[in-house]
Write a structure and sequence with these properties.
Length: 286
């Protein structure tokens, strides 16, 4: 058992915007690449909690609701010098209470997995983190009759439907927020969007994701588009192992540098087999 954190005289409270510089420093202390703007993006979409001791933030955890039945949690960090004292567990209790009965997803690091397992989360897959700077352009292109084009003003609801089918949960709010911070291209078949991919500033460079497509070949075409646009820049993409894209990304020059475990608590969402999310937004929003 870990040492009870009551000995530290901790206060647990909701995170506010003014906490973001301090929680950003915490994520830097555990070598996460997030910028302050990346924290702002996730904070404004969800609810965070902090553990504070004498005015110093020692821990943080956040969660996001997708309608009344689904949610995710993440950004779970305890200051390295305060770990193993029960702070992570206490923060988790608060985010889980906030999400209530919702089926909840997370992407765990190896450090976090034992804590999540003890709270009822079950591993259902893996995520591979790829990153690097690519100078060569990709060769993957859409099938004939389909094209990649910039997102249009009227695409929003259609993309939200595709994403919701791929994940089995409402995604309109998250996609609207992404459109404010990133760029999006659509895979168009006969005037209808059949897939899409976002690219935005993140961490040390750019992040590609989410990538939603009917199959691997079309997902490759969408990703190759963004790799081409960002040639010469540092790019990160986190993909589901089950999508089979990892070897191809490594061949393209985006090395696999880390992996996470996809976990769920409660009933897994019912996804539509006809369209899949190949790359996630980030490890918090899944
Ligand atoms: C994961 C993390 C948040 C856990 O926070 P914490 O405050 O240290 O965790 P707690 O003290 O509440 O311990 C919770 C459980 O974690 C496990 N744990 C904690 N410290 C551990 C250690 N040194 N060795 C092995 N397991 C440990 C135990 O299972 C513990 O269960 P117990 O309460 O029954 O003993 C923290 O290690 C951390 O910030 N790691 C770096 C960032 C990270 O990887 N975050 C997870 C993102 S998904």
């Amino acid at each position: 058992m870990t040492t009870p954190s009551t000995e530290l005289n901790l206060e647990y409270r909701r995170m506010v915007e003014a906490d973001l510089p301090a929680v950003h420093a915490l994520s830097q202390a555990v070598r996460w690449p997030h910028r302050l703007e990346d924290w702002q993006f996730v904070h404004r979409l969800g609810t965070g909690f902090v553990a504070e001791c004498a005015g110093k933030i020692l821990g943080t955890a956040s969660c996001w609701a997708y309608g009344g039945e689904h949610g995710s949690l993440g950004m779970v960090i305890v200051s390295p010098d305060a770990q193993g004292k029960g702070i992570g567990r206490e923060l988790m209790t608060r985010v889980l209470r906030e999400l209530g009965e919702r089926s909840t997803m997370l992407i765990a690091t190896l450090a976090g997995q034992p804590l999540y397992e003890s709270l009822g989360f079950v591993a259902i897959g893996r995520i591979h983190q790829h990153q690097g700077t690519v100078f060569q352009l990709g060769t993957a292109v859409p099938p004939s009759g389909e094209r990649i084009r910039p997102v249009g003003a009227s695409d929003g609801p259609k993309l939200a439907r595709l994403a919701s089918r791929a994940l089995g949960m409402p995604r309109a709010t998250v996609l609207d927020a992404l459109r404010k911070v990133g760029d999006c291209v659509v895979l168009d078949s006969g005037g209808e969007p059949v897939g899409f991919a976002f690219c935005r500033r993140f961490g040390r460079g750019y992040a590609i994701g989410p990538v939603v497509a009917p199959d691997t070949e079309r997902a490759k075409a969408l990703i190759a588009h963004w790799i081409g646009v960002r040639a010469g820049s540092f790019v990160r993409i986190d993909v589901h192992e089950s999508g089979g894209l990892s070897p191809w990304l490594a061949e393209m020059g985006l090395d696999r540098v880390d992996s996470g475990i996809t976990m769920v608590r409660g009933e897994p969402s019912h996804v539509d087999e006809g369209v899949r999310q190949f790359a996630i937004i980030n490890q918090a929003l899944c």
